[in-house]
């Protein structure tokens, strides 16, 4: 059996490694545009210069896996066409290309390593008193603004959004905003407009639909993500499994917390299919939200199984240490093809 894994982020890497360990007779090929594995959860560290977010992808993949560095440009009937012009035939495709990293002209998206590297370069060129705006008050924006403000207290840093930490409980949100104020971050409630004349604008609005998803023959949901059945198979193309940010998995949010268990479950269903066994419906619970606020501060918010925040949260240095451990664990899980997740709410 020929298996092609499209995309080697958290989902694709987890799926490929799990398949390599569980299915001896398959030929597994991973296609990814970059020879690096990008730890997206650390891109704000890369921008601020407090950490790195890339590591060689080959080191993340099981030795049985073939790696092709290219983009998939087209999905056909049992074949993908690569940016190199090469066609790659598959019996099963694991679709894991994530979401798009687009941002308005003149701003830098927080979702991709190339833009993060350019934003870092730009940041290092800025002199004291220069201005930085982060657009978006979700967890990514909050992490980015606090990282930049911590590393560069000489800059004038602000965050613009209609709401801040909307997914957190009132207590956790209050703590996050207190930390931002203590770092000197200006908090501006409202819509960002392109006439903002900040020296650097970081775009932290959640990723849109990947262009390959928009142009592929795979059926999509109303938001444009690949529609899947309970076994994480494309509803239009049963020889395709879709996982991670590019898949429309009911109840999921764009996160590693969802992408890694989805990838493991899809790989297991593919193995069952290869053995002629019935698939197992995907199910998982969320456990919380982890927000770093610089390297020495953070907030950990516990969740109900349906991802609603509970009243329990903690902050400070213990939260920063906890978040760091979670980031390290995501790499271990992807490299080993392991997923740790509780079954979903009934
Ligand atoms: C700054 C930041 C902080 C975050 N923090 C957290 C957090 O704390 N916790 C959490 O759970 N989530 C967090 N997220 C979200 C999390 O990173 C994503 O949900 C996760 O990366 C989704 O995994 P994925 O494998 O679906 O996509 P990705 O990790 O984006 O991987 C997709 C892969 O597909 C490749 N690809 C793209 N196009 C093609 C193509 N045409 N052909 C082949 N390959 C292609 C990409 O290059 C990439 O390697 C954060 C995101 C950002 C940006």
UniProtKB/TrEMBL annotation:
Cofactor: FAD
One Gene Ontology term of the molecular function aspect: NAD(P)H dehydrogenase (quinone) activity
Stated name of the protein: NADH dehydrogenase FAD-containing subunit
InterPro entries: FAD/NAD-bd_sf, FAD/NAD-binding_dom, NADH-Q_oxidoreductase
Highest rank taxon of the organism: Bacteria
Annotated source species: Gordonia humi
Keywords: FAD, Flavoprotein, Oxidoreductase
SUPFAM superfamilies per record: FAD/NAD(P)-binding domain
Protein's GO biological process: aerobic electron transport chain
Family: Belongs to the NADH dehydrogenase family.
Pfam family, one: Pyr_redox_2
Domain named FAD/NAD(P)-binding: residues: 1-263
Keyword ATP-binding: no
